Amino acid sequence: MKAGFFHFIPFMTFNSLNLTDPILRSLKEEGYTEPTPIQSQAIPIALKGTDLLGCAQTGTGKTAAFAIPILEILSKNKSTDRNRKIRSLIVTPTRELAIQIDESFQNYGRYTGLNTTVIFGGVNQKSQVKKLKQGVDILTATPGRLLDLMNQGFISISDVEIFVLDEADRMLDMGFIHDVKKLLAALPRKKQTLFFSATMPPEIVKLSKSILHNPQKVEVTPESSTVDAIQQGLYFVDKGNKKNLLIDVLQDSEIKSALVFTRTKHGANKVVKLLNGSNIQAEAIHGNKSQAARQKALGNFKDQRTRVLVATDIAARGIDVDELQYVINYEIPNIPETYVHRIGRTGRAGSDGTALSFCDAQEKAYLRDIEKLIGKKIPVVDEHDFPLVDHNPPEPEKQQQRKSNKSRKNGHAKNQGKRNSRPKAGSSNNKRARR
Ligand code: AMP
Fold this sequence. Notes:
It contains 16 helices and 15 strands. By secondary structure, the protein is an alpha/beta fold. The strands form 3 sheets. The chain has a 7-stranded parallel sheet with strand order 4-5-3-6-7-2-8, sandwiched between helices. Strands 9-15-14-10-12-11 form a 6-stranded parallel sheet, sandwiched between helices. The longest helix is centred in the C-terminal third of the chain and has 16 residues, at 395-410. The two termini are 38 Å apart. Adenosine monophosphate (AMP) binds at residues 32, 35-36, 39, 58-64, 287, 314.
């Protein structure tokens, strides 16, 4: 075992945040061992009843940063009748986020006895109304459907004690500002407000000032530069071929240790199964695994019994790997700072490292954001057996793609014609990869 190869960076624990047993128990069951930075900063503030301005993106653990204190506060004096009032309202711009937030409340609040539900547009309102009639303490909603059901008399938000405005910048981008203003007018004046936004352009600052009273600000600072010691390589590949490409890349016995990132826990499990099926030792670490299982997987990786560790972003947080050779982004992260964070796992303490990213047609918009953040094009590796064939991403990404046409033309497309091979860890003059 090499000393210092691998260790945990100490973090605050959930116990030190003064949470009650029902919440601590569910967090333990979720496999959360320590709060993320946004959680350790925001939870104590929110528990005091103070307004909060949180500058953080999805992926940082921000849902739990507001859900945990809300559950704590509301569970202190619970109502049990069917006519319970909505005491906390979370407004978020998209249906997907709304569903995820409600799931988080259900998970963290499973021992609190509080009722939660979610409403969003695009589906029949019947089952949502039925749920509302059963009595709800915590409602997560998208703005349009919320106003619609309020207008029909199915929802009153006049008793809300804690209001959360989630992804405020995206809400504005999506044209929800008027809806938000209507909601604010229907909310009681005396309430606690938790306001979250990934970015703070002037309109958001203005909006936050008009909503919040003496707020405390918490911010998770994004990282924006990539370490020079890290060789970067980009593979354009069809989604369905990523598995073949991964196996192909890992056939190289020079790769002694690789940390592979996936976006979801399910994705991590799938990759592990795939690699094990091809005789490549791999293990996964993610939130669904017990602390003991995670420690064991990390230990195996550290001792080089496992060549490949497959991780989700949050699970990999707090792990410091001094001599990690390769980071592989099996999926391109949708938050550009996450890319910087992921690849920063290699190339530490003066050693060289390589970061490879697999990008399918749908992920090109994410790639564009990453290249904008790091201020350079990632060198493209096109000497591989699975080049991208399907260049037409499905609908939602297409619009973003159109916007990015210009940067694509100036970037990768211009470089077509030469064949470049994979950059190797340790070769600081990466001759064949394009710049
Ligand atoms: P969010 O930024 O709220 O979308 O959270 C991103 C992911 O992190 C979700 O899958 C959460 O389940 C997970 N997560 C949140 N807090 C923690 C924590 N303290 N430890 C481990 N995973 C977490």
